[in-house]
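=== How it folds ===
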Amino acid sequence: MAASISLDAGFLLAKLHAAGSVLNNRALAEFGLKERSYSVLALANSELEPTQREMAEFLSLDPSQIVALIDELEKRGLVVRAPGKQDRRAKIVSATAAGAAVFRRAEAAARAAEAEALTDLSDTEVGELKALLRKALWSRAA
């Protein structure tokens, strides 16, 4: 008989995240990254041109946490800040050429860690899982 907590979606998501975090952080360590800094670098490499505030909102982090993560990546020469196009007080975060190169290699390692975390699921099930998670996260925002 399964414990009732094993039927709780929040518990299951937390357990999956915890297991995935261990694998992700292990895979990202060779690049001097952890999940959060990798996430910031990923957004800086996107075509979205996110501001620090947008990054904080998207990643559900406090703005001070984002600033510290960006500071670390900036010291390593992986990202730069520039004034926003509409609001010059807002800071757009973009990857440097070095940041793009590190991200490409780190992304491959993160994909391998994801595959390891989800090894018992078929490709179709992984796609369904991701689609359901995106729907649960962003369907009300649309």
In short: DSSP finds six helices and two strands in the chain. The CA atoms of residues 1 and 88 lie 59 Å apart. The mean pLDDT is 91. The first strand starts at residue 79 and ends at 83.
